[in-house]
Amino acid sequence: MGTDRGSQPEIPLTKGDEPDAMPLLRIQALHTQFETKQGTVRAVDGLSLDLYEGEVLGLVGESGCGKTMTALSIMGLLPGNGQAVAGEISFEGKNLLQCSSEEMKKIRGAKIAMVFQEPMTALTPTMTIGRQISEAMEIHLDLSREEARERALELLEHVGIPSPRARFDNYIHQFSGGMRQRVMIAIAFSCQPRLLLADEPTTALDVTVQAQILDLIKQLAQEAGMTALFITHDMGIVAGSCDRVAVMYAGRMVEIGPVDDVLLNPRHPYTQGLLGSVPSLDSNPGDRLFSISGLPPDLASLPTGCKFWPRCPLADDRCREEEPVLEQYGESQAACWKVMPLHTN
Amino acid sequence: MFLYTVRRLVSLVPIVVVVMLITFTLGYFGPIDPVRAVLGEEWEDEARYAEVKKALGLDRPFLIQFLDYMGAMFGGNWGQSLSSFGGAASDRAVGEGRGAGFSGTSTGVREMVVGRLGITAQLSFWALVFLVTFAILLGVLAAVKQNTAVDYTIVTSSIIASSIPAYVIGPVLLIIFVLKIPVFKTVGGWDGMFSRQAILPAIVLAFGPMLVIVRQTRAGIVEVLGKDFVRTARAKGMPERLVVTRHMLRTAMIPVLTSMGLITSGLLTGSLFVEQIFNIPGIGKLAIQTLLSGDHAVFMGVVLFQSLIIVTVNLLTDLLYGGLDPRVTYS
C-alpha cells in the first residue's frame, strides 16, 4: 500500500451502506497537467474517486486545488494546453480519456452535464436564452425545432422563470444573475443527463439567491434521480446538500467520507482548518476567525512528502519526507501520518 | 429605432451642405477654367469668352453662385454637364459611357452620375460578395487552426494579396487571363453585372481590403475562443461547426462590421485605378474626368453622391450593429 511515487493507491472508495455497488463514475489515478514556462503544473495529481448512482458528492478545497480541473477533465474540456496525461475516468464502461471527440460530443450535455460558476459570462450574449436551451435537445434528443422549443418552455417554467413564453426570446443581458443561473440549470437538465457536475453554481450569486438556486438543483436532481458532483468551498453547502464529501489539497485527495462523519470528526489537519475557518454563531464577537496559515503550494514545484506540511501545525520529519496515503478511519478515509487516535473509533 | 433613423437622416443635411461648400469653393478658386474648357481654341476671343461666362452664370459673385446651386440642388435640378454647351469637354465627359445601365447621350448631371454609380455599385456588390465569402471564411479557418501551418498560410497570403497595388495586380491578371489564356475578353465598357467581364475587376477590388477582414475575423474568433460561453456551448455537446456559427461568429463580427462599412463606402465611391485599368465607366472614372476637364457641375454631383453614400453607409452600419449585438439599443 505504501508508496513513495507521490501518487495515491488505487483502492476503491466504497460508499458505506452499499459496498458492492458499481460506481457510475470511477476516476483512477488521474493526473492532469499544464505545461507552462515555469514548468509542469500538476493541477490534478493522482486523484482517485468513485461516484455512485444517485449520490451527491461534495468536492471541497481552496481555489486552485484542482476541483474545477477534475470536472473539466471528466468533460474533456480542459483549457489551453491542459491535458489529462495519466489515469482513467470510467463512465458507463468507457474510459472517457480515450474517447474520440465525436464520442465525447455524444456524452457531453446528454449523459454528463455541467453547471458553471459564472452565470454572467457562461451564456452566449448574442443568442436568445430559449435557443440556448433548445439547441442541445435538437442534437441529443433528436427533437424538431418546434418540439425542442416546447420542451424548453416547460424547462423554463420548471426552473422558475416567470412567463417563459415572453422570456424565451430574451437575451441574457435582460436577466439577473440568479435568473441566468436558472437558465444555466435548465440547459444542464434539458437532456436528462445521468451525472451533473456543478462547479460552484452559487458562488457568484447574492446570498439570498444562493439558497434558492441550491434548493432548485437539489429538487431537480432528486426528481431525476441524478448523480451529482458538487464543487464548492462552502462547508455550509456540503452540510446541507451532500451525501459524501471529498477534500482536495494540491491536486490530490486528503480526506473523503460521509458528510456527517467528516464534518463532525475531521481527521486531516487541512479539513480541520477548513472547518475551523467557518464563522459560527457560537463564537464571541471580536474573536479572530481562524485561518490556515500560509498559501497553497506552487503546483509547478510541490514540496516533498505530505503536500500540506509547510502549513501544518503538526508536521514532523516523516511528513516532510514521506507522502501519506489514504487510510480507512471508521467510515472515512484520510491521508495523514498524524491522524488523531481519538478520532479513529 | 424609427425615430433614431429619422433623426440620423435629418442630421445628414448639414454634413452634406458643408461638403458641398468645400467642394464648390475648391472648384471656384481652382486652376481649371470651365469657360476655357468649353471654348477650347476660341478662348482668346474676349467677346466670346464673356458671352459663355455669362451663359454659364459664372460672372456672378461666389456666394450667389453657391446659393443658387444649392437651391437648385435641393429642388432636384443638379445642373447640366459642360458638354451640353458643346466644345472640348463634351467628348471626354460623355464619350466614355457605353453599354447597359448608362445613357451616353444624357448631359443632365443627375442622369450621368446615377448611371455611372449603378455600374460602380454592381462592381462593388461582387467585390463585397468575394470579401464576405472568402475573407470571413479564411479568417474563421485561421482562428480555429490558430498557430498552425494553415493559419500562417492564410495570414501570409492575405498580406501578399493586400500588399500588391491594384495597378500591378490588375494588369498582371489582364495579361494572364485575357492575353495568355483567353478566359475573359475585356474590351472596356460595361455589359451588366452578370457578364463574365465583371469577375476580374471585382476580384482586384476585393484583394485590397482582404487582409483587414481576414485579420479582424481571425482576431474576433480568437478572442471569443476562450470565453466561458464557448465552453458552455461545448459542454452541451454542440458540434464544433455550430459552436462557431451560432455562439462565436456574431460576437466576432462586430469589429468586422465597422471595417465592412468603411470598405463599402470606399467601393461605392469608386475606384480610380480599377475603373481606369479595366476601362469601366464607373463613378470613379467620371470623377477624375470631370475634375480634369473643369466640368464642375458634374464633379459637384459626383461629390454630392459620394458624400451621401458615405453617410448612408455609416447609418446602415450603425443600424446593423443592433442586428449583431442584442445589447445595442437605439434612442
UniProtKB/TrEMBL annotation, chain B:
The keyword Repressor does not apply. SUPFAM superfamilies: MetI-like. GO terms for biological process: transmembrane transport. It comes from the Bacteria. It holds the Pfam family BPD_transp_1. It is found in: Cell membrane. Residues 117-321 form the ABC transmembrane type-1 domain. InterPro entries: BPD_transp_1_N, MetI-like, MetI-like_sf. The keyword rRNA-binding does not apply. PANTHER family: DIPEPTIDE TRANSPORT SYSTEM PERMEASE PROTEIN DPPB-RELATED. This is ABC transporter permease. It comes from Caldilineaceae bacterium SB0661_bin_32.
